[in-house]
């Protein structure tokens, strides 16, 4: 089938625009990678764009050798894994329960959940509530407040309502209780949607710096993104090289003049971004399928 000149022109324009969009997204990442792999004092002269001019791994040695960053990584990994699992469990249980149309006070519960999406109490009431619950300056301040998402619950509920009722009715005829129906019928069919919601939840936990900055004052409890936020606003490299490990590394003969605050910042950004990027290829097929199913069922 021959395409008209107008269609071919439109295709060329679309390809050019998408190519420019890809370049605008990929180039900053490549630039930060090049600066992080370049000697800091040399990168400060300029001219480093896509490839390091003087290759070095010392920036990463400093970042990964910092005790605060290593501990922040453990906090981030723990909150991401635990927060995602708890969030998925709460979302699935809530959505499964409300999906029953004969549930008592179902409309009232839905209205209450919807109200939380439209109105918020604000930062100060939330801070007071977290203080009353003794969650401030604790690890659980990252988990409990974000364990439930009204949006994820509604998406999951619509998906469950799209499951053929014949499957659930046949399980009920065989004597299955609601809990067995959840684990035998609903859960296996919900894997694509759970993967999509889980990916969004994990990315939210990994990228969150706000909770660590405002609800936690103990440096041993801050996540890596909060440390990165503090680092990006720092004006002195001693903020980064203040640990004993770094001072010992400098004492072994490494010259401080080869390190700049910018090179350390770029290395920290790359170290904090690469792990979550590596998750996408493994969940891509479930993520795409879940989004498509959600769009059709919604």
TrEMBL record:
<dbReference type="GO" id="GO:0005886">
    <property type="term" value="C:plasma membrane"/>
</dbReference>
<feature type="domain" description="ABC transmembrane type-1">
    <location>
        <begin position="69"/>
        <end position="267"/>
    </location>
</feature>
<keyword id="KW-0472">Membrane</keyword>
<feature type="transmembrane region" description="Helical">
    <location>
        <begin position="140"/>
        <end position="160"/>
    </location>
</feature>
<keyword id="KW-1133">Transmembrane helix</keyword>
<feature type="transmembrane region" description="Helical">
    <location>
        <begin position="181"/>
        <end position="203"/>
    </location>
</feature>
<feature type="transmembrane region" description="Helical">
    <location>
        <begin position="109"/>
        <end position="128"/>
    </location>
</feature>
<feature type="transmembrane region" description="Helical">
    <location>
        <begin position="12"/>
        <end position="34"/>
    </location>
</feature>
<feature type="transmembrane region" description="Helical">
    <location>
        <begin position="72"/>
        <end position="97"/>
    </location>
</feature>
<dbReference type="GO" id="GO:0055085">
    <property type="term" value="P:transmembrane transport"/>
</dbReference>
<keyword id="KW-0812">Transmembrane</keyword>
<dbReference type="InterPro" id="IPR000515">
    <property type="entry name" value="MetI-like"/>
</dbReference>
<dbReference type="InterPro" id="IPR035906">
    <property type="entry name" value="MetI-like_sf"/>
</dbReference>
<dbReference type="Pfam" id="PF00528">
    <property type="entry name" value="BPD_transp_1"/>
</dbReference>
<feature type="transmembrane region" description="Helical">
    <location>
        <begin position="262"/>
        <end position="283"/>
    </location>
</feature>
<protein>
    <submittedName>
        <fullName>Carbohydrate ABC transporter permease</fullName>
    </submittedName>
</protein>
<comment type="similarity">
    <text>Belongs to the binding-protein-dependent transport system permease family.</text>
</comment>
<keyword id="KW-1003">Cell membrane</keyword>
<keyword id="KW-0813">Transport</keyword>
